[in-house]
Amino acid sequence: MTEFEHKQKVVDSVKAISKGPRSMQVYMDICAKCGTCAENCHVAYAFEGTQYNPAARSDLIRKMYKRETTLTGKLFRKGELTDEDFDQWVRSFYECSGCRRCAVYCPYGIDNSVLTRKGRAIIHALDRSPTRMADTQKISDEFGNDEAQPPKAIINALEFLEEEIEEETGVQVKIPVDQEADILFVPASADLISFPETQMGVAYFFHLAGLSWTMATDAVDGANFGLFTGDDAHMKRKNKLLHDACIKYNCKQLSIGECGHAYRIAKRIGGENSGKDENGNLPYTIDNIFPLAMRILREGKIKLDPTKFGKKVTYHDPCNFARSTGIVEEPREVLGALSDNFHEMYPNREQNWCCGGGGGLAVMDGKEKVKWGEDEDFLSYRMQAGKKKVEQVAETGASYLAAPCANCKRHLQQLMEHHETGVEVGGVFDLILKAAIPPEQDK
Fold first, then answer.
1. ω before 318 within 30° of 0 (cis)?
2. What one-character DSSP code corresponds to residue 299?
3. pTM for this one?
């Protein structure tokens, strides 16, 4: 691609907004530059400089749009897109985690994450996505999961977790794989490799509840970086694996694990799936593990001792749960049943501050193609961008931070260690292993 073709592709992509979703067209016109979004952005809170203002970031697209599509823009045209400008695009749109907190507070309801994703989509189409983001997509397309695990390795990992559950609880638990069942459970694959306690807790929960469930080696990963890079084609390919597995194993329900963006994609934006009937309905329902667990606990099917864990616990609302899918009260009810020492951080729910690792940023540790600061180290950027979250957690006095999202967990573990807080980070279902009373002991 020549330099002219490169720049023209960017221009054409921005001009296409005029024929795209009405909401995005409105965002091109109504920003009042009032500063409310900056006051409620964790990045703008952590860093000085107008470039960290969400409105200023969105203006990278907004100014080009007006220059290319309005009469005044064409008459008083000045400045063309340079390579330096595009480097700024890459940096700015990957400094935003797409958390959508700005949309909660904007008086006009502008959702800057929509424009962030538009910017990232343009970046990705030009093969300029950060290396780790692009590589993760390639691995996912090859293996069906982000961890590069072939089916045999997945089965071995699950068998190892069965042994670990028995060692910790004294209960033999079988994790069904590639079987017909009522429920297909799909976590983020990181919960098998990097955060196994979460997967162990989920398996123990299903066992104690006596539910018919399975996992699938060809659909073991709900994590989907197509949402983060703006690559809709990849997002739909990855999501279709979950659909195909539900059909293959005759499942009545697709249950997504502790992964907000996986649930958001599967439930709302994953694209058309094959297999819908003439009314557009799927032969299975799509749910999240938290509403399911809440119902099971309310029915008294699992006995718990909320005093067993002991540590003071707080809860982080992942952005894709609280602000994008409405999973807010269910994890709190589950956590409250698992611990009698639960304390909220403030603000919370849909107003909670992003941890700083959303939008796929949690996987980006090292140097990238553009500067992220004087040392070019994106990990350092993330550790500063998470400043507000560190303050929130510290105010609770908690020693265990429940974060039901693989990206959040990875980032928060690094964040708590970097700032030497001494806070342990894990999932909600990790605590099932601590609090559940096996039936033979419930006497």
1. no
2. T
3. 0.90
